[in-house]
Amino acid sequence: MAAEDPQTETAPSRDDDLLDALARARERVRELEVELMRKGGTPLLPAPAPLQALAPLVTARPAACDPAAERLAEAARDRFFSLSADMLTVAGLDGYFKRVNPAFERTLGYTSEDLTTHPWMDFVHPEDREATLAEGRKLAEGALTLNFDNRYRCRDGSYKWLSWSAVPVVAEGLIYAVARDITERKSLEERLQEKNRLLEQAAQSERTAHETLRLAQRRLVESEKLSALGQLVAGVAHEINNPLAFVTNNLAVLQRDLGYVRELIRLYQSGDRVLAAGDPALLGQIRELADSIDLPYTLTELDELLPVSREGLSRIRQIVKDLREFSRHEAVGDVQEGADLNAGIESTVNIARGRAHNQHVELKLDLAPLPPVTCQPAKINQVVLNLVVNAMDACGKAGGTVTVRTRPSGEGVEIQVADTGSGIPPAIRDKIFDPFFTTKAPGKGTGMGLSISHVIVAEHGGRIEVDSTPGGGSTFTVRLPLSPPARPRMVRESHSV
Question: Are 287 and 226 within one domain?
Answer without folding.
Answer: yes
